[in-house]
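2024-03-11 09:14:02 INFO worker-7 job=invfold-0412 stage=load source=structure_tokens
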């Protein structure tokens, strides 16, 4: 496999990367820039491009790119889940919503004025990704977003652990890479909890619902352990906050008695489903329970997870730095952050060098080496 150093020091592509970040994604863009610079012969060169989206007090805004991007490969970072960003609106402090972040992304694309060589968008948590199907007269925001970006000249979009991967059908002529950082997750789990036994007799993977089956099947396959799953029994006669409420979680699978459990999903929103499953596993005499979600949103606060940790129901919760983490979350003893910035840097280097990213996306060789450590 070609190393990132070899990719970035090629004369045909060296120096042509332009990293542009919306307000909520500056942290990740800076970390990627640090990696790219460390892989080149001239570490003093930065790939970050100065940009901003200033706002008027009425809430209107504009996108500005403060240096040339003509002929460069532009990678725009956007975190639509970063509610920690604020702006003044008629004297009030307003938190940025996914809509605000998406509009800023479009403003920066417009500011480029068609002068960039290629435009790629790195949007880890997909805008509108949870509204992926139409049951009634409902909008399809994510599909509409993808088609709009394609029409604006975006050539490729990189997302991580999309809630509904089949959304790529909305833009069959645009590059769409949906990536799950399997290796980074298992590395964090293995090196944080060093006493874990990954044998089939002591370890098991649990899918929290039908939608998470594919990622959990991968884990169970590379680890060589059994997998169980829950399915959500819903009350379809009632609608609460736009969806049918969950009546119960029903378990299907092998006995979990005495086994360590790894529960993985794409998003922890309120976290109620994840905790319901953890409590149910404890009732079935599971040993230690480890949870993972690519995006730890915790929209209803952290108190229920605090209690579950104090009661010994969960051993730890892993989450990535692909979206905003509140300062309160980062301080929790039960939360372990999985750094994905180096992985994103590999992807940028490979795309810039027109190299296949198949080996980067499928890490089974690296996982096998990790398990032999």
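2024-03-11 09:14:09 INFO worker-7 stage=emit residues=373
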């Amino acid at each position: 496999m070609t190393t990132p150093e070899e990719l970035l020091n090629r004369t045909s592509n060296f120096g042509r990367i332009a990293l542009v970040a919306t307000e909520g994604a500056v942290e990740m863009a800076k970390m990627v820039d640090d990696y790219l610079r460390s892989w080149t012969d001239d570490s003093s060169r930065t790939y970050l491009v100065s940009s901003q989206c200033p706002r008027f007090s009425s809430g209107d805004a504009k996108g500005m790119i403060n240096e040339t991007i003509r002929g460069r490969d532009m990678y725009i970072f956007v975190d639509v889940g970063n509610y920690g960003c604020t702006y003044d609106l008629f004297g009030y402090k307003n938190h940025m919503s996914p809509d605000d972040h998406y509009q800023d992304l479009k403003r920066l694309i417009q500011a480029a004025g068609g002068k960039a060589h290629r435009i790629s968008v790195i949007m880890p948590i997909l805008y509108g990704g949870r509204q992926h199907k139409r049951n009634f007269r409902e909008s399809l925001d994510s599909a509409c977003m993808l088609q709009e970006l394609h029409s604006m000249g975006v050539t490729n979009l990189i997302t991580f652990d999309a809630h509904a991967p089949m959304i790529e059908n909305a833009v069959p002529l645009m590059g769409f890479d949906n990536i799950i950082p399997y290796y980074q997750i298992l590395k964090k789990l293995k090196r944080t909890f060093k006493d874990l036994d990954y044998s089939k007799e002591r370890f098991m993977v649990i899918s929290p619902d039908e939608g998470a089956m594919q990622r959990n099947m991968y884990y169970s396959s590379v680890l060589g352990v059994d997998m169980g799953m829950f399915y959500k029994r819903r009350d379809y006669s009632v609608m609460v906050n736009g969806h049918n409420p969950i009546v119960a979680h029903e378990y299907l699978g092998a006995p979990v008695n005495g086994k360590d459990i790894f529960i993985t999903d794409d998003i922890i929103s309120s976290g109620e489903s994840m905790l319901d499953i953890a409590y149910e596993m404890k009732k079935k005499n599971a040993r230690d329970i480890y949870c993972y979600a690519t995006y730890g949103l915790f929209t209803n606060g952290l108190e229920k997870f605090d209690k579950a940790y104090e009661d010994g129901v969960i051993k730890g919760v892993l989450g990535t730095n692909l979206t905003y983490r509140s300062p309160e979350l980062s301080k929790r003893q039960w939360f372990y952050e999985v750094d994905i910035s180096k992985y994103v840097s590999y992807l940028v280097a490979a795309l810039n060098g027109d190299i296949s990213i198949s080996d980067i996306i499928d890490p089974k060789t690296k996982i096998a080496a990790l398990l032999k450590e």
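2024-03-11 09:14:09 INFO worker-7 stage=report msg="The radius of gyration is 21 Å."
2024-03-11 09:14:10 INFO worker-7 job finished
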